[in-house]
Design brief:
The chain is α+β, with helices and mostly antiparallel strands and 242 residues long. Helices cover 44% and strands 24% of the residues. The chain folds into two domains: 83 residues, no CATH class; 120 residues.
C-alpha cells in the first residue's frame, strides 16, 4: 500500500510503495527474554528523487505474541525504534551557513533521543553562534544577546532578514522549563531537558537558518542577477558605440 514519505536526505516528499521500499519482521530464536519473545523489523527505502537516490534504513526492536482471537502474531516495537541510516533527521544545510554552526546543529539532531540535555546544550550554542555571526551581537549570556537583538529590531539596526517573529520565537525559549530558567548562564551549562524540549530548539534553529541566512542569500542572488543584466546591457551599448 502506498504511503506518504519524506526523504531524510533531501527532504523531498514522495510516495513510498513496494517498488522503492522493503520491510520484514524477523523473529530472534532466543527463547523468551525479559521483554518477551524477541523480534525486530527493518524498513529500507530508496529516494525517488533522481538527484538524491539515497537509501534510508530504520530498525525496530520489540516482541511478538500470538493473538488467539486474530489467529496471528502481533508485534510490538514500542521498546526501541530508530533511524539507522541516516542517523538523524537533520536537514541538509547550504554551505553559506558557517560550518561550525551547522556542525553543532547536526550533532544536536544526532543525539536528540540518546541525550536530550546534550542535544539542547549544542542547540543553545548553535543559536548563540547565529546571533553572534549573523546579527553581530555579543553579550555575556544568550539571554542578554536576545534582548539586544530585540532592541536592534526596535531601533531598525537589525538585518532585515531578522523578523520580529523570529525574535519572539527566541524569547519563547525562555518559557521552556529548565532551558529558560538557565538562560543567564553560559550556553555550555548542561540542563535537564526531555526529548520534546530538545526538539523545539532544533526546530527553532531550522527556522532561523531559513529566515536569516536563507533570505539573505536569496536577496543577494536577486541583486547579482540584476547586476549581471545591467552589465550585459552596458557592454552591448559600449560595443554599439564603437
Amino acid at each position: 500500500m502506498a504511503t506518504q514519505w519524506t526523504c531524510p536526505h533531501c527532504r523531498h516528499p514522495q510516495v513510498r510503495t513496494e517498488d522503492n521500499s522493503a520491510t520484514a519482521k524477523i523473529h530472534l530464536d532466543l527463547g523468551v527474554t525479559n521483554i518477551g519473545d524477541t523480534s525486530f523489523e527493518y524498513l529500507a527505502m530508496r529516494c525517488l528523487n533522481s538527484d538524491c537516490n539515497q537509501l534510508s534504513f530504520n530498525l525496530g526492536l520489540g516482541s511478538r505474541r500470538w493473538d488467539q482471537l486474530q489467529h496471528r502474531n502481533v508485534y510490538d516495537y514500542s521498546l526501541w525504534c530508530d533511524a539507522i541510516y541516516p542517523s538523524s533527521a537533520a536537514k541538509p544545510q547550504p554551505d553559506f551557513i558557517p560550518e561550525v554552526i551547522v556542525e553543532d546543529y547536526y550533532e544536536a539532531c544526532k543525539i536528540q533521543k540518546l541525550s536530550p540535555k546534550a542535544s539542547a546544550t549544542l542547540s543553545r550554542r548553535c543559536i548563540q553562534g547565529m546571533i553572534r555571526d549573523f546579527a553581530k551581537i555579543k553579550a555575556p549570556s544568550l539571554y542578554k544577546e536576545i534582548e539586544k537583538l530585540r532592541e536592534a529590531i526596535t531601533d531598525g539596526s537589525a538585518d532585515r532578514s531578522i523578523s520580529e517573529e523570529s525574535v519572539e520565537a527566541l524569547h519563547a525559549v525562555r518559557e521552556i522549563g529548565n532551558i529558560g530558567a538557565h538562560m543567564e548562564k553560559d550556553v555550555n551549562h548542561i540542563v535537564e531537558v526531555d526529548e520534546e524540549e530538545a526538539g523545539i530548539l532544533i526546530e527553532l534553529i531550522e527556522q532561523l537558518f531559513d529566515e536569516w541566512y536563507g533570505e539573505r542569500e536569496k536577496r543577494k542572488a536577486r541583486l547579482d542577477r540584476v547586476r549581471k543584466v545591467a552589465d550585459e546591457k552596458k557592454a552591448v551599448k559600449a560595443q554599439a558605440a564603437t
